[in-house]
Automatic annotation (TrEMBL):
Species of provenance: Skermanella aerolata
The name this protein goes by in its record: ABC transporter ATP-binding protein
Keyword Membrane tagged: no
SMART domains reported for this sequence: AAA (SM00382)
GO annotation, cellular component aspect: plasma membrane
Keyword Transport: yes
Source organism, top-level taxon: Bacteria
PANTHER family given in the database record: AMINO ACID ABC TRANSPORTER ATP-BINDING PROTEIN (PTHR45772:SF7), CONSERVED COMPONENT OF ABC TRANSPORTER FOR NATURAL AMINO ACIDS-RELATED (PTHR45772)
């Protein structure tokens, strides 16, 4: 299997705290790769380093063999990295379809004067963008809510809207930070089905999630972080049975969920 993303000795130091500490991760092209770990383990920080939202303290990062260690976020977006956020980020006052279109604006060719004057070329592009956004909304089962104000959507719908917006940039690697957070069991199951369909579109998935059943079911490979360090890695079973992982989770609510997944 080819490696799409390779992180080597990735480190992020905040004042007095190593949030990510010499972490190595290899994400295979076409895989669904999970990142798990207790609260504060460094999962979101790792995502921020991969998407370029935060600069690294040290380490290297390559995407498809290309060094992107110092590449700014927009360049990584251009190279095919997209993400969703743990705390949903969207334009609440825009409609659902408009939010999806913001995900593709870096790709629109005509801009500036053409858009101000609404020249035919711009209008054509805008129509094509809207059509594509509608297709994506159908894909995430939100087509009937296209004209709803985004802030009025339920939590689960907002999470799926974020996925549609991330897909609008045609990513090769999609980072999902707790996509099932706040979802009820039915929504979570549907999300699993949706993400499997995303994976079938040749999009590699890297996801952070606390819902153990969800992670174990969906992921080909899982990396476990604790206090900024990688403490385990492997297939779902291997990770689930790893004593270091169980110990890291002991005393947390997730330990109970892990035990439940173990018995399942
Ligand atoms: N900008 C920041 N400045 C200082 N410390 C930070 C910053 N961002 C995160 N941290 C700290 O870094 C550590 C890792 O945080 P991070 O958000 O990456 O954890 P996480 O694994 O995503 O946790 P959770 O499961 O709660 O989302 C925590 O101790 C957190 O308080
Ligand atoms: Mg987090």
């Amino acid at each position: 299997m080819t490696t799409l993303l390779s992180a080597s000795r990735l480190t992020k130091q905040f004042t007095g705290l190593l949030a990510v500490n010499e972490v190595d991760v290899e994400v295979s092209a076409g895989s669904v790769h999970g990142i798990i770990g207790p609260n504060g383990a460094g999962k979101t920080t790792l995502f921020n380093l991969i998407s370029g939202l935060l600069p690294l303290t040290s380490g290297t990062l390559t995407l498809d063999g290309r060094d992107v260690t110092s590449a700014p976020p927009y360049q990584r977006t251009r190279l095919g990295v997209a993400r969703t956020f743990q705390n949903i980020r969207m334009f609440s006052d825009m409609t659902v379809v408009e939010n999806v279109m913001t995900g593709m604006h870096t790709r629109l060719k005509s801009s500036g004067v053409a858009s101000l004057l609404r020249l035919p070329g711009f209008r054509r592009e805008e129509r094509a963008a809207r059509d594509k956004a509608m297709e994506l909304l159908a894909f995430v089962s939100l087509a009937d809510k296209a004209r709803v104000r985004s802030g009025d959507l339920s939590y689960g719908d907002q999470r799926r809207l974020e996925i549609a917006r991330a897909l609008a940039g045609d990513p090769r690697l999609l980072l999902l930070d707790e996509p099932a957070a706040g979802m009820n069991p039915t929504e979570t199951r549907d999300l699993g089905t949706l993400l499997r369909q995303v994976a079938k579109r040749d999009i590699t998935l890297l996801l952070v999630e606390h819902n153990m059943g969800f992670v174990m079911d969906l992921c080909d490979r899982i990396t476990v972080l604790n206090f900024g360090r990688k403490i385990a890695e492997g297939g779902p079973r291997e990770v689930r049975d790893n004593p270091a992982v169980i110990e890291a989770y002991l005393g947390t609510k997730v330990a109970a969920r892990l035990a439940k997944a173990h018995g399942a």
